[in-house]
Amino acid sequence: MEIGIIKDALEATVILGDDRLKTEVDQVYASDLMSDVLAFGRPNSMLLTGLATQQAVISAHMAEFKGIVFVRGKRPKDGSEKFAKENDLVLMFTALDMYDACVRINSAVEGNGLIADPGMAGQKVEQILLSHEFTVQGNDFANAGMASTEVKSILKKIGLDAKLVRRVAIATYEGEMNVVMHGDGGKVSLTVTPAVIEVVIADHGKGIPDVALAMQEGYSTATEEMRAMGFGSGMGLSNIRKKSDELNIESEVGIGTTVRMRFFM
Predict the structure, then answer these.
(1) For residue 185, how many other CB atoms are within 10 A of its CB?
(2) Which of 52, 153, 229, 239 is at 20 to 30 A from 163, Cα to Cα?
(3) What is the 3 state secondary structure string of the chain?
(4) Would you state the CATH architecture of domain 130-264?
């Protein structure tokens, strides 16, 4: 698919790279987690992100992407344009949010044969039914659980099985509370395909020194203040493990933690 087709589908404005809109790409990868971009992104792709920073541009370059579309009307104000120009990256922005952009990209996929993996030619890409992202503030107990509530509401509205929705909501709430208590803020990302619900919770906190220990029931580093509010019993991660069909936790001390949960339909 040409980058110009993506531009038209998203009604995007070109910041840099008008002369490269006929460049072909194999994939559009949507994420605000640059570690995921570097780990799972494929060369010759476009990045769709709400992270309007030079680090997003550098990450796209390192992953050998062709360019970036910034969502929600964002555009970088640091040295991103200079870096992108020096490294032949296309930069665009769209007023659409991540969900609407993904929907339009999916329509473009079906109309133009874009595939998720260059090694999967001839196979149909797994359709993304919806994708949402929520911001969670650290130590904000007044609003703790709002992201999980939104996730539950969205899944109920699309008519998923009530027991499945309950499992997803509980696991998401446990993860969100960990961000509030220990994570210094982060993101909750929800993606739904016909086969899988995936929830990714990433924070910018102090990290978990020993994930295996933290998974044990009853283990907690909650403060007395947190316990006084009814949190920190040491059941969060173990409860997430019980509710999820697949669970992966990546944590680096001083950097943060990413919890990836998958629930099969």
Answers:
(1) 16
(2) 229
(3) CEHHHHHHHHCCEEEECHHHCCCECCEEEECCCHHHHHHHCCCCEEEEECCCCHHHHHHHHHCCCCEEEECCCCCCCCCHHHHHHHCCCEEEECCCCHHHHHHHHHHHHHHHCCCCCHHHCCCCCCCCCEEEEEEECCCCCCCCCHHHHHHHHHHHHCCCCHHHHHHHHHHHHHHHHHHHHHHCCEEEEEEECCCEEEEEEEECCCCCCCHHHHCCCCCCCCCHHHHHCCCCCCCHHHHHHHHCCEEEEEEECCCEEEEEEEEEC
(4) 2-Layer Sandwich (3.30)
C-alpha 185/C-alpha 203 separation (Å) is 6
Instruction: Among 126-140, 163-177, 179-193, 206-220, name the one with the lowest average pLDDT.
Output: 206-220
Per-residue pLDDT of 67-94, as tens digits, reads 999 998 988 888 889 999 999 999 999 9
Q: What is the pLDDT of residues 164-182, one digit of tens each?
A: 999 999 889 888 888 887 7
3-120: CATH homologous superfamily?
A: HprK N-terminal domain-like (3.40.1390.20)
Cα-based distances in Å from 74 to 13, 93, 98, 168: 11, 6, 12, 30
Is the pTM value of this prediction over 0.90? Answer: no
Max distance between CA atoms of the chain, in angstroms, equals 60
What ranges do the domains of the chain cover? 3-120, 130-264
